[in-house]
Amino acid sequence: MSNYHIKHLEEYYQVYRKSVRNPEVFWEEIAEEHFMWRKKWDNVLSWDFTKPEVKWFEGAKLNITENCIDRHIYTRGDKTAIIFEPNNPNEDAQHITYRQLHDKVCRFANVLKEKGIGKGDRVCIYLPMIPELAISVLACARIGAIHSVVFAGFSSSALATRVKDCDAKMVITSDGSYRGSKTIDLKGIVDDALNDCEGVESVLVAKRIHSEINMKEGRDHWLEPLLEEAYHDCVPEIMDAEDPLFILYTSGSTGQPKGMVHSSGGYMVYTGYTFKNVFQYRENDIYWCTADIGWITGHSYIVYGPLANGATTVMFEGVPSYPDYGRFWQIVEKHKVTQFYTAPTAIRALAKEGVEHVENHDLSSLKVLGTVGEPINEEAWHWYDDNIGKRKAPIVDTWWQTETGGIMITPIPFATPTKPTYATLPFIGIQPALMDEQGQEIKGNQVDGRLCIKFPWPSMARTIWGNHQRYKDTYFSAFENKYFTGDGALRDEVGYYRITGRVDDVVIVSGHNLGTAPIEDAINEHPAVSESAIVGFPHDIKGNALYGYVILKETGESRNHDNLRKEINQLITEQIGPIAKLDKIQFTSGLPKTRSGKIMRRILRKIASNDTANLGDTSTLLNPDCVQEIMDGVL
Ligand code: WT7
């Protein structure tokens, strides 16, 4: 029996039991046999969730890029590591072999060094889905610089917030990006952001759309000539297992985004191991995850997990709807994709367009389908199963988070029988717990509660950059000695988990995690607004959409409400990005509040969702009258 590659349900249960009975022995074996270390650890695990402090493979030395690149050169140097599929289907795809990837990453790493970047420095990467994005991520890892990738759909002020929070010394971007039929002026966005960021010494600019842009003398440099001149080999920086590998921001229910800090050793082991099993990756498979590398899904399951396994990973620059709704399936056919991993929102959007976009493509290469980012509804699950997998490719509904670094609850294809809308069983080594509101663990099956994890796993985030207290408060304070996920879940009669959604003030819109507070802050900056509250409501395609209740400073008909709505969404676009725009904005004279002044979002959520049958007792509110007003004005 191989603990590294699980193939049957029985094997899953056996390995699972082993991994929870004796986690240290288990993870030591996985780490030792399947990864390359410059020095072994002194201690497999030490942890204390009260501080909280977690260390895996303490004392070990490694460089993750040696695991993701160098070691494959001897066995599969001419194998394709990355297939780049451009936005425009008429532009040729690029196949980058492991040997070429080594060359490119080393050159890039040398450019970083030449520009003064060293171990521990933060580098912010704001790039579209072009090869330079994966290469720059790996180049940072090569020299021990901490990368912080910011999704290139975020606005300049969201970018500035992130650059400043981690005090980045460098930004890597491109002249612009292609997105379907549009081009986006990325460099202009970076320039705006950097007006406000003094710590940034240099900006590297990749050429993608060949647009006219401003290059600031002394600060901005075109990437290509630097890469050409750079030396093609670079000795990897040897890192401690616990040295930070990257920071990735995720929104919180309040205030500033949280810079989740991930480790070098534990993150590598867990993403590598999950990738192999969750996608049942075999040599010569062609794996495609449609996420953007700006999100954790892309970090773990486009770059690090696949490359650690010597896999071929597809990077797609474009969108599912361009030039038409068959684009995904055309790519699957073209590259003979074997594993396909996407989000429920994409599945729903494509299902709506009809099967004719699917039917004219040969999808017979597909062996495993995956979904991630939000709960998948039954209808979308079946559409995916029937039309894409033709009921032959198992669907892995993978639940995890930016904070968890890797997949936590998931079927193992061909081993775990799937069940629509269920993420099914905890992955090897993961110990979930459902908690009641009194803080007690709910044992047994057919129960639901708040989802916690009660034992550390190798890829968990170690802290929030610059704010360990917030890390403790957010994840380790709600339930004693447990990591709290922010999600609710139920466990069925056989122990399968179904994630029911967020139980905090985070709304998942089209698979994007959005905190309501930062959006409210943006709206409240509008001079006409005095107060606002955002909630999520169900949406056919996006899963959830945002509903805003807004109180104006001056009531009456003096302002055009439609214009105000536009201005509010414009402000949100500027401060956060278009993904956070509100679908509906209702103006009201009051918001339901408790006597202590806290907005009762539960009531607002119900009204926005047209679920007003059981609003509960509203008479104890500070201002019960406003509830009727809001119900009468609901959009
Ligand atoms: C939140 C994390 C890490 C993947 C990308 C999102 C929701 C994620 C599922 C799933 C139901 C899911 C949860 C989670 N979520 N996957 N398979 N079923 N819900 O990462 O932006 O950190 O968001 O996404 O609510 O807490 P993220």
From TrEMBL:
InterPro entries the UniProt entry points to: Ac_CoA_lig (IPR011904), ACAS_N (IPR032387), AMP-bd_C (IPR025110), AMP-bd_C_sf (IPR045851), AMP-binding_CS (IPR020845), AMP-dep_synth/lig_dom (IPR000873), ANL_N_sf (IPR042099)
UniProtKB keywords: Acetylation, ATP-binding, Ligase, Nucleotide-binding
Gene3D superfamilies: 3.30.300.30, N-terminal domain of ligase-like
Catalytic class of the enzyme: ligase
PROSITE patterns: AMP_BINDING
EC number: 6.2.1.1
Domain called AMP-dependent synthetase/ligase: residue spans: 71-462
SUPFAM superfamilies in alphabetical order: Acetyl-CoA synthetase-like (SSF56801)
Tagged with keyword ATP-binding: yes
Domain AMP-binding enzyme C-terminal per the UniProt entry, residue ranges: 519-598
Residues covered by the Acetyl-coenzyme A synthetase N-terminal domain: 12-68
Domain of life, per lineage: Bacteria
PANTHER family from the UniProt entry: ACETYL-COENZYME A SYNTHETASE, ACETYL-COENZYME A SYNTHETASE 1
NCBIfam families assigned to the protein according to its UniProt record, in alphabetical order: Ac_CoA_lig_AcsA, PRK00174.1
Family per record: Belongs to the ATP-dependent AMP-binding enzyme family.
Protein name listed in UniProt: Acetate--CoA ligase
Organism of origin: Meridianimaribacter flavus
Source species taxonomy: Bacteria, Pseudomonadati, Bacteroidota, Flavobacteriia, Flavobacteriales
